[in-house]
Amino acid sequence: MYPRLLEIPLGGDITITIYSYGFMVAVAILFASWLTGRELDRLQKEGRFGTIRVPARGKPGKGPKTTTVRPSDLMGTITIIAAVMGVVGSKLFHILENFGRFMQDPFGMIFSTGGLTFYGGLICAGLSIAWYAHRKGIHVPTLADAIAPSLMIAYGIGRIGCHLAGDGDWGIVSNMALKPSWLPTWLWAETYPNNILQVTLPQPGVYPTSIYEFLASVLLFAVLWSLRRHPYKAGWLFMVYLALNGLERLLIEQIRVNNTFDVFGLIVTQAEVIATVLLLIGIVGAVILTRKRTASRGQGRTPAVQAS
């Protein structure tokens, strides 16, 4: 494993370390931002967005007071919101999932480079982006459709970072008796040598669930990308994303190591509970929105707000 991609000595005891997990998360965010920007431009050409008017920059009293921008022009700020609130939400949900450990060492858990829960980041970043988009006059359901494929592939790219770092997002001990003869051993059992947690895993190794999730994300991204020109109501594709995401996570949790809780007599993980909720919301939402949208140009309002 390669938890540290690069170490740059600056003299003395100061060294800048580039971690594989952080690097892959950055790649995932930037790629998702670029891909979403492309989708926003396509949707605007189809008339799915109204114009967004913002104050024109320049000397006061000179020239026009407002100008128009494309929704994709706001992707810089949306990306920053996604990155910041994603980390905050991921850390918060990790703390809630490991509250006992948090009480023993709160500062250590808060400021550690690990300990991030995907669903916490998805929920907090998603709500924050929806609030920002609404303020800027971007039609939130249509924006959600544009983001859906990007979210799926970004999740997979992030899981490659988990695999390289060996950060504990692995499976239970592999059952070698069930391994298909044609499947390479590294796809069935991995010991994660030199992992960032510095733990020794039992032989023959554990299921490399991060690789499985990467492969599943690529497949589901292809499905969402092929459906992005759907004729249904705005928000339908995002509901399909929620359903697919929830289903994928429910399946992988069956062979993945995670903290468990007793919920009304059922032993479940935090991810299983959230995934079940997302799956149900996605199915119900997709059914409700499976109606042909009416042809209209410029969904949303056109406020005069400050772009940032």
Write up this protein.
The structure is a single chain. The protein is mostly helical. The chain has a domain at about 5-55 and about 70-170 and about 185-230. It is about 50% helix and about 10% strand. It has nine helices and six strands. It has helices at about 20-45, 75-95, 100-105, 105-110, 120-135, 140-165, 210-225, 235-250, 270-290; strands at about 5-10, 15-20, 50-55, 65-70, 260-265, 265-270. The strands form three sheets. Strands 1-2 form a two-stranded antiparallel ribbon. Strands 3-4 form a two-stranded antiparallel sheet. It has a two-stranded antiparallel ribbon with strand order 5-6. A hairpin with a 2-residue loop joins strand 1 and strand 2. The radius of gyration is 22 Å and the shape is globular. The protein starts with a strand and ends in a 19-residue tail after the last helix. Mean pLDDT is about 85; it is low at about 300-308.
